[in-house]
Specification:
By secondary structure, the chain is an all-alpha fold. It is built from 14 helices and 2 strands. Helix 4 packs parallel to helix 12 and helix 5 packs parallel to helix 13. It is globular, with a radius of gyration of 20 Å. 51% of the residues are buried.
């Protein structure tokens, strides 16, 4: 933690560089370095809160606060009329969490622990959420490709209806996991439950929540600074806007989830790592994207959920491979490596898209 405290010096440095309109490359580097310690504190606070509340609520808090920055950035971009960039960032966030975050967590955790186990109930719920998310993205794309709709008016109406149903589905999943069936979402089964029951939180609940909220607020601020400078910084490299929206921006914006999930996996808290990675993807698909549809209507910048064919197929493939590695409620380093390889394949394709 002493190293993290030292790295916090990059936080004011990045903020000052932004206000001084320094070179975009310098701002990107300082912001990225500043997010590292904040993500570390965010992960520590999440682990402490999970000691009090369990992995489901802990992962939900981490995913929600991590996605808050993305939601703010997406609303600003949507208001500016950058609908395609917003939709690309949604796809990229889903892919990044399912393949990059989960893959890195399984790889890092598997290298330290031979086999890691997590809740069977968590695996089952995660698979159900991912399947519903894919269906919610496929139906509008299918409608647009099979029904004459040159103005996209009908597609937007379909998207509004589906967005409302996706939000209802996400709300029902919360009622299920934290209400009616809360008792079945243990920390990786009876053995792990007994092990973690003996754990004692080193921080008070109030301190943990305070650190979590404070870290999330600064991560959101620095993510906005970083993302705002990223496009200018890489403009000379010749990357496409699609690649930036789907690969670069989500990696930066999801830095908190990346580090938190990896840290939890290395500490053999795989329930929490899976909850963060899968929970964030599900939240983006079932809540963030639908909310943006309604925000677009309110701002007069209508957005539909009809993603292009390559994006839909990519998300479908990501869900399929992620489902295959979590369905047995066990993980090891090879599964993580495979997820990272799939993410690399998609990144190569989007680079030339």
């Amino acid at each position: 933690m002493k190293i993290l405290a030292f790295l916090l010096l990059f936080v004011p440095a990045a903020i000052v560089a932004s206000f001084m309109h320094a070179d975009p490359v310098l701002i990107v580097v300082l912001s990225a370095l500043a997010i590292v310690p904040l993500s570390g504190y965010l992960g520590r606070a999440t682990e402490e809160i999970a000691t009090y509340t369990g992995p489901t609520l802990g992962g939900l808090l981490n995913a929600t606060l991590g996605n808050l920055a993305e939601l703010i950035i997406a609303i600003l971009a949507l208001n500016a009329g950058l609908v395609d960039l917003v939709k690309a960032s949604i796809t990229g966030s889903i892919l990044g969490n399912l393949l990059l975050v989960l893959g890195a967590a399984q790889l890092a955790g598997g290298l330290r622990h031979k086999v890691q186990r997590f809740s069977v109930a968590l695996a089952g719920l995660s698979i159900s959420l991912l399947v519903v998310a894919v269906i919610g993205l496929v139906i509008p794309a299918m409608f647009l490709s099979t029904h004459p709709d040159p103005t996209h008016l009908l597609t937007r109406r379909v998207s509004v209806g589906i967005a409302a149903l996706l939000i209802i589905g996400y709300a029902l999943s919360l009622v299920y996991s934290m209400g009616t069936h809360r008792s079945v979402f243990g920390e990786g089964g009876d053995v792990a439950n007994e092990a973690h029951a003996s754990d004692h939180a080193r921080w008070s609940l109030g301190r943990s929540v305070g650190v979590l909220l404070g870290s999330a607020a600064f991560v959101g601020w620095l993510s906005e600074i970083l993302v705002g400078s990223t496009e200018a910084a890489i403009h000379g490299v010749g990357l496409s806007q699609v690649f930036v929206g789907i690969i670069v921006v989500p990696i930066i914006g999801n830095a908190a989830e990346h580090s938190s999930a990896v840290i939890m996996a290395m500490r053999n808290r795989m329930d929490l790592a899976v909850s963060i990675a899968i929970g964030s993807s599900a939240q983006v698909a079932l809540l963030i994207a639908p909310v943006l549809v309604f925000v677009g209507l309110a701002l007069g910048k209508p957005m539909d959920l009809a993603f292009n064919t390559f994006e839909v197929v990519s998300v479908g493939l990501a869900v399929a491979v992620a489902t295959s590695v979590i369905r047995d409620a066990e993980s090891h380093w090879l599964e993580g490596a495979f997820l990272l390889l799939v993410y690399g394949m998609l990144a190569v394709a989007f680079f030339f898209f």
